[in-house]
Design goal:
The chain is built from two helices and nine strands. It is of the alpha+beta class and 145 residues long. The radius of gyration is 22 Å and the shape is elongated.
Length: 145
C-alpha cells in the first residue's frame, strides 16, 4: 500500500514539475520584415525647430524588423501580458515593449506608463508605431527562420 502511495506521489510530483517547466519556458518567436513609411516624431521636430527654425519632416520609405515573443497563456496567471515585442531598424536602433495588450487579433504596444504607442494586427500584418523619436506605418511579412 505504501509502495503504491509513494509511486502515485512520485508521478504527481513529476507531472507538477513538467507543468511548471512548460509554463515558464514555453515560448514562440516570430520575426517579421516590415516595409512602409517612417519619419521623425513630432517631439523631435518641435525641438529641432526651436533651435534652427522650420524643419521639413516628410514620410520616407522605411524598413524595420519586428520580433514577437509569445509565452504560453498559462503565464497570464502571474503576469499581465504574454508578449514581448522588439522593433529594430537598419540604423541599429531598437525599441522594446513588454507592456503588450492582446485585444482580439491586435497586439497593442504600451509604454511603461500604459500609453498606447503602437498596434500590430495579427490578421492584416499591419504595424504602426509612434515613439518619442520615430513614427512608422507599414505592412509586415513573416521571415522564415
Amino acid at each position: 500500500m505504501i509502495k503504491k502511495l509513494l509511486k502515485l506521489l512520485g508521478y504527481s510530483l513529476l507531472s507538477i514539475a513538467i507543468f511548471i517547466g512548460y509554463a515558464f519556458w514555453a515560448e514562440e518567436s516570430e520575426i517579421y520584415r516590415c516595409e512602409g513609411q517612417g519619419r521623425h516624431a513630432k517631439a523631435v521636430i518641435e525641438k529641432a525647430e526651436a533651435q534652427i527654425g522650420e524643419v521639413d519632416n516628410p514620410y520616407l520609405n522605411d524598413i524595420g524588423f519586428l520580433k514577437i515573443e509569445s509565452f504560453t497563456k498559462i503565464s497570464l496567471i502571474w503576469a499581465d501580458g504574454r508578449h514581448h515585442i522588439w522593433w529594430e531598424k537598419a540604423d541599429g536602433s531598437t525599441d522594446i515593449w513588454t507592456n503588450v495588450a492582446e485585444v482580439g487579433e491586435q497586439l497593442r504596444l504600451n509604454d511603461d506608463n500604459g500609453h498606447l504607442e503602437g498596434v500590430f494586427s495579427q490578421i492584416s500584418k499591419s504595424f504602426s508605431v509612434v515613439t518619442g523619436t520615430r513614427e512608422f506605418k507599414g505592412m509586415c511579412k513573416k521571415v522564415e527562420q
